[in-house]
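Quick log. Single chain, no ligands specified.
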Amino acid sequence: MSVRFLTTRRLRRWSVAGGALVLTWSVVTVVVQTARAHRPSPALVIQAVEQVEATASESVAFEAQLDQIIHAVQRLPPKQRMQPEVQGALRRSFAVMSPEQQATFVESVLPMGLEQMVSAYRGMGEDQKRFVSELIYAEFSGRGWLPEDTDAQAFAALLDENAAKFLEAPDAETRLELLPEMQRMLHIMQAR
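-> predicted structure:
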């Protein structure tokens, strides 16, 4: 067997192939890093809210920043939407909006299927409601979302009352206040 020496032609081919491989991996790395930087996070929502608070509510920049908050919240996973920091930031941004902007904002940040789920819950028979409220009560109390002295029957009545308020509330502020509880309810119902 003879050993072939690396000719100039072969060396050039290997160099081009190696360069193409390095270039491809560089492009992939840049794309992945850019995607990670633009991934929504609670910190991104809080940062956007801070920018909104510093802007006048009638300006064009304010509307663009509200859209940025809405898109960031819509892209957040359900568990991150329910974080107290995110909910507090949403309430702060809500305070600087006009009533029309508030209504649009609340409708835009509602998770998909939330209103249908709450309507379905309201339309259930008493036995089904009791079963669902027991599931939700067990989950809420297991996660520490309820005070220890909360009674299951009182919780079921409160859940039913809040579901009715959420659907029938004429003002966006009431809907925003009930949104975390309704999101948790949706999350539990989707998991079951």
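The chain has ten helices and no strands.
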